[in-house]
UniProtKB/TrEMBL annotation:
BP-aspect Gene Ontology terms: carbohydrate metabolic process; glycerol-3-phosphate biosynthetic process; glycerol-3-phosphate catabolic process; glycerophospholipid metabolic process; phospholipid biosynthetic process
GO molecular function, one term: glycerol-3-phosphate dehydrogenase (NAD+) activity
Residues that hold NAD(+) according to the record: 10-15, 140, 255
Protein residues bound to sn-glycerol 3-phosphate: 108, 136, 138, 191, 244, 254-256
Class of enzymatic activity (EC top level): oxidoreductase
Reactions performed catalytically: sn-glycerol 3-phosphate + NADP(+) = dihydroxyacetone phosphate + NADPH + H(+); sn-glycerol 3-phosphate + NAD(+) = dihydroxyacetone phosphate + NADH + H(+)
Organism field: Alkaliphilus metalliredigens (strain QYMF)
Domain Glycerol-3-phosphate dehydrogenase NAD-dependent N-terminal: from-to ranges: 5-159
Active site location: 191 (proton acceptor)
Gene name tied to this protein: gpsA
Keywords: Cytoplasm, Lipid biosynthesis, Lipid metabolism, NAD, NADP, Nucleotide-binding, Oxidoreductase, Phospholipid biosynthesis, Phospholipid metabolism
Protein name: Glycerol-3-phosphate dehydrogenase [NAD(P)+]
Amino acid sequence: MTHSSITVLGAGSWGTALSLILAKKGHEVKLWMRNQEQYEEMNRQRENTKYLPGTQLHENIKLYVDIEKAVKGTDVVLLTISSQAVRGVLKNIRSIITREQIIVNAAKGLEANTLLRISQVVEEELGSHPFAVLSGPSHAEEVSKDIPTTVVVAAYERSVAECIQDLFMSSYFRVYTNPDVIGVELGGALKNVIAFGAGISDGLGYGDNAKAALMTRGIREIARLGSAMGGKLETFAGLTGIGDLIVTCTSMHSRNRRAGILTGQGKSLEETLSEIGMVVEGIKTTKAAFELAKQYQIEMPITEEIYSILYKDIPPRVAVSNLMSRDRTHEIEDIVDAEKINW
Ligand SMILES: NC(=O)C1=CN([C@@H]2O[C@H](COP(=O)(O)OP(=O)(O)OC[C@H]3O[C@@H](n4cnc5c(N)ncnc54)[C@H](OP(=O)(O)O)[C@@H]3O)[C@@H](O)[C@H]2O)C=CC1
Ligand SMILES: O=C(CO)COP(=O)(O)O
C-alpha cells in the first residue's frame, strides 16, 4: 500500500475520527484546528477531550494551528469543519493549495445565505479543482471505535472517487463510489432536517409510528427536492439518503436528533445549542431547504413545519397537527400521475 499525506481541516469529532482511520492505515495526517488552547491540550493529552473523548490520537497524527504549514505539500485536503465555516477556511488556503491536492468535503450542510452546496462553494472560492464528497451513515463515536461502517464517495471523475475510496477503505470502514455529486451532497445535508424533526417527535413523547412516518415521508421530501436540483433518485435510496436518515433519526449520537429532542421538550434554540455544544447542521440547513423548496416549487410539508418551529416560534404540537390535518392525498402522487394509476 502506498502511503499518502492528508490535511484534515477541523479537529471536531468528525475530523478526529477520520484522521484516526487514515493514521491507522499508515498515512501521515496533519490535523488542523484554529484554537491554540485546543491545540496545546490535544498535544499534551494526545486526545480530543472536547469533541471525541476516550480515544487516543494515533502517532501518525500531527497537530497544527498554522493552516499554511498544515496544507502545504499534502496529497489530499479534507474539510471537516461545519458547512457555514467552509468558505472562510477556503479563503485562507486559496493561495496555498495546489491543483494536485484533491479536496474532499465531509461536512453535511448547505451554505445558509447562498443556498449553495459545498462543491459549489469550493468552485466559487478555488475555481475548478479536483473534488470529492464523503457522506453516509457514520457517527464519529462509532468510527473511532473501529465499529463497521459504510460510506459513499462521489466525484465528477471516477479516478478521483476511486483514489479517495482506496485512501479510506479499511477492515471496518467500507467505501462505495457514486458519480452523483449533487445527490450525495444533498442527501447528507437534507437528512439533518428530518433527523431534527425525528428528535422533536421523540421529545414530544411520540412513539415509533411517528418516527417511521417522519423517516418515510421525509425521504420522499429529500428525493423530491434532490432530484429537482439534479440528484439521481437512486442515490436517495442509498447510503447518503435512507442510510444516513436511519442512523441520524434513531441514534443518540446524532446531534441533530438530540437537538430536536430538546426542542420537542420545550427548550429554546439557544438553550438547545448550548447544551449540545457541537455543530447542529440541520438548523441552518432547514432554512436553506425551505427556501430551495420555494425556489424549485417542491412540496416539503415536514421541512416547512420544522422551519416554522425554528424560525416562526410555532409550538411543535401545532406543527404536528398541521401535518396530520393536511388534505388527503395519494402516497405516490408526486411521482406517478394519480389519474393514471390502475386501481
Ligand atoms: N460527528 C459526526 O459523527 C459526523 C459529522 N459530520 C459532519 O462533519 C462536519 C463537522 O462536524 P463535527 O466534527 O461533528 O462537529 P464538531 O462540533 O464536533 O466540530 C466542529 C469543528 O469545526 C470547527 N470550526 C467551526 N467553525 C470554524 C471556523 N470558522 N474556522 C475553523 N474551524 C471551525 C470547530 O472548531 P472550534 O472548536 O474552534 O469552534 C470544530 O473543530 C459537520 O458538517 C457534520 O455534519 C459528518 C459525518 C459524521
Ligand atoms: O451525519 C452524521 C452521521 O452520519 C452525524 O449526524 P449528527 O450531525 O446529527 O450527529
